[in-house]
Amino acid sequence: xxxxxxxxxxxxxxxxxxxxxxxxxxxxxxxxxxxxxxxxxxxxxxxxxxxxxxxxxxxxxxxxxxxxxxxxxxxxxxxxxxxxxxxxxxxxxxxxxxxxxxxxxxxxxxxxxxxxxxxxxxxxxxxxxxxxxxx
Length: 135
Hints:
- 22% of the residues lie in helices and 39% in strands.
- Strands 4-3-2-1-7-6-5 form a seven-stranded antiparallel β-sheet.
- The protein starts with a helix and ends with a helix.
- By secondary structure, it is an alpha+beta fold.
- The relative contact order is 0.19.
């Protein structure tokens, strides 16, 4: 799915008093133990997301295997315990820890063709500042 279609979908799911800071595409890699169990079919367990960063929180829009939007989760910044952002050349690893005990590991897209939504510095700084200010 291209970034223009994703941006329209993300903006349609925002509340009235919320503003979009930025968005990017990310993927949740498959578990390595699953590869040893079912082989190359483990690639079907990968999950793809469009992550929308707003002034109130973070929206996780999950895509199905056909590339259509299937689920939508929203977490306000005070519901996120911490985020660890690593370094990368093509993808940047991110690990979100939520206060409800759930965690989410993603690889945010940094480089790619023009149609792909990429993580930029403004969006990353907003994520880091908003979560660390609440501690």
